[in-house]
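Hey, sorry to bother you again with one of my protein questions. There's a protein on my desk that I can't quite get my head around. No rush at all, and the record is pasted right below.
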Amino acid sequence: MSERIPADLHNTLTETKESLLLPPEEVQVSDFLGLRDESIREIYDALVNENTEQVNNFLENLSSSDKAELLEKANRETRKSLMLGFAPYFDADVISILQEDVRTHVLEDMSAEQVAKILSDLDSDDALDIVAPLDPELQQEIMRKLSAKIRIALEEGLSFPEDSAGRLMQREFVAVPQFWTVGKTIDYLRAARDTLPDDFYDLIVIDPSHHVVGEIPLNRLVRSQRSVKIDDLTLEEVHLIPSSMDQEEVAIIFRNENLVSAPVVDDSGRLIGIITYDDVIYVIDEEAEEDLLKLAGVKEDDLYRNIISTASSRSRWLLINLLTAFLAASVISLFDATIEKIVALAVLMPIVAGMGGNAGTQAMTVAVRGIATNELSGTNAWRVIGKETAVGIINGVLFAALIGLIAGLWFQDTGIGAVIAAAMIINLIVAGFFGASIPVILNKFNIDPAVASSVFLTTMTDVIGFFAFLGLASIFLI
């Protein structure tokens, strides 16, 4: 028979349960999703009214990500006022998560000593991420204010190619000799707790020449007896990352192997750093965003860049699109006599080109994503192209029947309905085939498919769509 719980203890447990299940009003789920616009306006108003106490109260209750969001949404003058008047609230953790273009502006308004202090408070990978985009002269000025250890680490990091594992890795890691025991390793970790990385998940096992011989997850270490040799705990499979490997390839390895961390080695195989999952998550997010924006011909920092720079970068793609538009227009000009006789063709032409462009973009997006995630390669390329072409056939037939019926009733002419129906089928087949094949072909020639695919695809669907529609009209309606 179980004992009864005392009334006071029962009440305490009940209150604790309710507090866990029902968060207080001031802590809502939305509070973790970023700052509300109302809160940002209140902070800006307090800043304008020089109500320093109110601004301090606001900033004290904000997380690092909220403070970063506050800076990113402010104009440059407001941002400068926040940084000058309330600098202690915007520490290294805040600066490190700022969007790159905003962060560069913030750092340019700071002294070299202030930037050096921020870099000294960060892990080497985060410090390198901050200093790499800066102007070389500013870089050198900051480097002179750093300790020799940090300066050497950053200079070494800058020597690696951009977007490589060497740029991504951090130089703070825990490596132990293979001849140690679990007890000696644990004693070492306790004694060196002040110099260990803030977060680490695996121990790297090395030989006397600093070559990696294996890894040991922390949970495996703490579950073992003190007398067990480190060499006996080492995992059989080790995932070595060459310092020159592209960060996209690193992300693929982490995803495929479900890694939490992986050692980085130099050309001779010696351990020089480690990459952890949080850095890889950032890479996956960055690469996905970059590819998405490239499809539209814009850059990831366009939201924060100045007007002239943004207009300049976009004008190049607009010029290319203009040239391809002239190509499509030249096809239309071949059939100007046909259009003069049947004005309805001019009304219906955009439908054929628009449907082809949209269908092609769908197939192209699937192909570009597949290439980016390594799900689409030479072994399955033709199967994917065939599938997208078949989808184009099915949708072509369905929409051909629909548009043919509408056009026939609209202009009281079954011939026009039949011509646009046939042109729709042709163009959607073309859209499916080229939408999937163009990214594959470009990738084979080491051309970024996310950048160039849309230009070629639009040209193909416009030219073939107009040619098919107007050509059929010339044959069957004139």
User: Anything to note?
Assistant: The first strand starts at residue 175 and ends at 177. Confidence is low (pLDDT under 50) at residues 1-30.
